[in-house]
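look at this one:
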Amino acid sequence: MLKKTIIINSLDNVAVALCDLKAGETHEGVTLLQDITKGHKFALRTIEAGENVIKYGNPIACATQDIPAGAHVHTHNVKTNLSENLEYVYNKVPTALKKVKGRKVNVYVRKNGDVGIRNEIWVIPTVGCVNGQAKLIVETFKQRYGEEGFDGVFTFTHPYGCSQLGDDHERTKLILQKMVRHPNAGGVLVLGLGCENNQMSAFRAGLGKVDEERIKFLVCQEVDDEIESGVALLKEIADAVKHDKRHEKDISCLKVGLKCGGSDGLSGITANPLVGLFSDYIVAAGGTTVLSEVPEMFGAEQLLMNRAKDEETFNKVVKLINDFKDYFRRNGQTVYENPSPGNKAGGITTLEDKSLGCTQKSGSGPVEDVVFDDGFVTSKGLNLLNGPGNDMCAVTNIAAAGCHLVLFTTGRGTPFGGFVPTIKIATNSDLAAKKSNWIDFNAGAVLESDFATQLEKLIDLVVETADGKLTKNEQNHTKEIAIFKTGVTL
């Protein structure tokens, strides 16, 4: 029989509805005073004004009025406990994971030793002015030569690359350079205009040594017909790429991004804990996972800090958090202006509520390293990555840092996909059934079976995806990028 409610932690003074509940019904020993929508919370006992609301065994809010047992607990009767400035202390907790035997995956091995799970050809514009030309080059090539022998030809358009100053200009250049080096691309055509700030000469120099058979450069203003020139260069790339074959490797070669978007009250109960178990599995098998969305660590950051492998890593996590808070303040914004309207409708009340659910994706293993804007993920194990919570920007950052695919949990649903395979994991069975054209995996099934069974199924899906199975975003040709910007545009 499907459970109707859940108390997540024995310390909690609220329970969560796993389906719509009616006023007058009795659940967890209390009679409901109002209807409680799926994903929303109700009080297990009287919570007095000024008292903390406890969920996940931690405070998620402070009651603004007396809340009787059985009453709906949400934005109308609580407020956040977060403040702008916090002092952090390193209280290291045991986080060692028992090693496990990994699975095998079939991947492409690049000349530099990196592995990719796709063998695609990409056209990457250095500036938004040539987005149209990039699309025309791709379409003309496909019409003329097809895509046999590799996994497709794609372009990733964006509006940047010119009229940007300082950090924004550097960030655009770095993200695009990281994409050029991404091992899921068997070859890349870098397409420029000629007069943009993001000059091809500097862009190319920043890449260092490249495989000239597979990485080509074209400046549109320097040729008579950029479409024909671009197609000719793509043909040269394709002739090299089409001979690539998959090779068996241990799953420890994978770098997997962890992301949530359109969360609901079940995100921290089903999908995110399941992804956390996957993170622990692949880390224990010698692999790598990456958690980003820094604003959605606020309220749970001390728990992550306590899992830092050493004090140096702890200090990096503190810098990660404080730098992002400073970014909010520089722009005159409240640090804890979150969650979104969709999150609230799904049952998430405060940023602490959202963050404690969000960080479930990180599992229980040690934080091995922190990666900032200019870096790649190089440390095995769980890494934290600088970046915003915005779905498109976060997935772009995660992929650009070197992740081969992203596990993306959602309670509200989204068709979005990044430039690497983006496995969409529903928090509830209703969403998985309704949007089966978006959703790859139903984590709501943990309420009908158990976490161990669903973890094995999720591992199977990751292995299949690494081996070439297309995710729903790939099937729907939804492969996008968004570059995070913070500064002035001329």
Q: What stands out?
A: Residues 251-475 form one domain. The mean pLDDT is 94. The CA atoms of residues 193 and 220 lie 5 Å apart.
